[in-house]
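call fold(seq) -> tokens
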Amino acid sequence: MSAIHSDALVFFGATGDLAYKQIFPSLQAMVKRGHLNVPVIGVAKGGWNLDQLKARAKDSLEKHGGVDPAAWEKLSALLRYVGGDYKDQATFQNVRKELGNAEHPAHYMAIPPVLFEAVVEQLVKSGCAKGARIIVEKPFGNDLASAQALNRILLNSFDEKDIFRIDHFLGKRPVNNMFVFRFTNSFMEPFWNRNYIERVQITMAEDFGVQGRGAFYDQTGAIRDVVQNHLFQILSNLAMEPPVCTDSETVRDEKVKVLKAMPSLKERDLIRGQFRGYRAEPGVAKDSKVETFAALRLEIDSWRWKGVPFFIRAGKCMPVTCTEVMAKLRLPPTVIQECKLKQNHLRFRVSPDVDIAMGITVMAPGEQMTGERAEMLAHHQPEPTELSAYEVLLGDAMAGDSTLFARQDYVEQAWRIVDPVLKLATPVYEYEQGTWGPAEVANVVAPPGGWENPTIGSSATAAKAGSFR
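ret:
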């Protein structure tokens, strides 16, 4: 039986930065595609009115993608506004009035987690929670205890099936393409295991700093900001077992199993770094020990992956902006003595472009039986018509499809893995901007032979190698 579609979207934090940069452009796109035709009730601070909200929404569209006149006219007609304090019962009584005949609203909380409890409590008291779904933005806590406390708040008033924890990374097409690639190609399964894969590395590099978000970032750091959520999601897609079917619970069961098989992170398997100049950023403590770079070594104690190390790193002020997976295969035996073997690899690039590449050895020019490295490359150039991450996720949440959302047990398992090292005062090593992190990484957390550093521009030959959609 198909889920009931939400008949209204209540948007807490409608005047915030996320709404301005991401949500209003996504709502316009949803309207344009015919995916949104229910009231959108913005809720935020008092002192605003509906005309001001519409003006901000239109300005958002002008700055982020452009205004589509027909779609904007429809979206403008759907917009409502309720201003007031989130702790004031009158605010939620006004929300209830704006909902009118709606019986199954989706409440989207693009607000700080510290406000969740007050908002949930008022939703229940006002009757707005009845028959409703709730969509919450990350971070889902800042450690295991706070994540468990947040889940208790949500589960006291909503069933797990009606809670949608957004990690926008899961709405990205390239992340989900890894899932499709793994389970629709028969050649993958024979070698995608400990018998053939020697190691896996995942890199999320950004060539910029904190971009004026120093106060936020100094309470967060790289591990909380991107490792235990975004990069663990990539890891889960890579390492999960084939689900017996593709309903949301079965897929999410397999992802949780990956995290359950991972021992908690140990101090010896972590290096933290901080780019030179970070402490001079506005909002950052002058003696800050928050990491802007982290490199981790992880293990998955499952039948498929036992003994295969997974290396993860993420950092700001790196040489490039790129998210990429590199899986190295074990060396084969050879009868060609003149050929110096190099490891085969499978490479997934998630951003800024999208690649799937197989590293192979072919005969080098000349008469000698010597080899050289080459890549068979499939490249995808994102098209303007593709759905944005928030289009996908808001649409799925309103349709009741939980597949791309983090479940309670997944969130708590992810925090369990990193929690022990978050509570330790591990060293933070300084590194120069534009480098691949502190030098200490090479001696402590590095794959055999060193990290494979992504380079931008390696897809230049994609047209010759083939492309995919």
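The radius of gyration is 24 Å.
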